Each structure stands twice: as C-alpha cells, then as structure tokens.
Amino acid sequence: GKKPSELLADLFDKVGAHFYNRIDTYFDNERKAEIQNNVATARPDTLGGLKVTDIVTIDGHQFVMEDGGWMLVRFSGTEPVIRVYCETTHEDKVQAILDDGMKLAGLK
C-alpha cells in the first residue's frame, strides 16, 4: 500500500492542489442583525479577484467561484462569532478572499 502522503500526491495530481483557511471574528452582539443582513444581501461579482458563479444558502452563505473554490460565511450558534472559510486552487488568493468576506459582512 501507499503512504498517506503518496495518496495525497496522487489526488493532487488528479484534481490539483486546494488551499484552505478560516477567520473567526468576535463582534458586538448588538450588530448581529446588521451583519446578517450584510451577508444575506451580498451579491459580489468577484472575491479575491475570482468571479462568483453561484451563491448557496444552506448552513450559511456560500459563494462559489469560477475555479470551483468557495467562501462560506456563517455565524456560530453559541457565541457572537462570525466564521469566514475559504477553499481555492489559488494559494495566493486565499487571504484576499477571506478579506473580501469580512468586508461584505461589514467587519473590515
């Protein structure tokens, strides 16, 4: 059998490398409705320079991008925290996508 690192290398050879990160940000609970509205009404053309091709509103707001990557914005169910997740094939765009997610929520 192959080592896990070899299996991962085989997978990346087939689908390309994917890069992921997440930001958790506390906010003033009095702003929750405003932030939720900002996210719910956001219709960005691009995130981190990549074209947004779809928006999925299951378990948060997921913005699907042209490279097959995505950015997900969701609220914690237990504390005043917003989480912005990103996965993309462009390592150099991860932080810009996360920053754009914070901006569309009105937190940056």
Assigned CATH architecture: 2-Layer Sandwich
**Strand order of the biggest β-sheet:** 1-6-5-4-3-2
Strand content: 25-35%
**What's the pLDDT, averaged over the residues?**
94
Textual characterization of the structure:
The chain contains three helices and six strands; from the N terminus they run αβαβββββα. The protein is of the alpha+beta class. It has one domain (16-104): TATA-Binding Protein, CATH 3.30.310.50. Strands 1-6-5-4-3-2 form a six-stranded antiparallel β-sheet. It starts with a helix and ends with a helix.
Protein topology:
Layout: H1 4-15, E1 19-26, H2 32-41, E2 46-47, E3 50-56, E4 61-65, E5 70-75, E6 81-88, H3 94-104
Antiparallel strand pairs: 1-6, 2-3, 3-4, 4-5, 5-6
Keywords:
108 residues; alpha+beta; TATA-Binding Protein; 6-stranded antiparallel sheet; 6 strands; 31% helix
Overview in brief:
The chain is an alpha+beta fold. It is 31% helix and 33% strand.
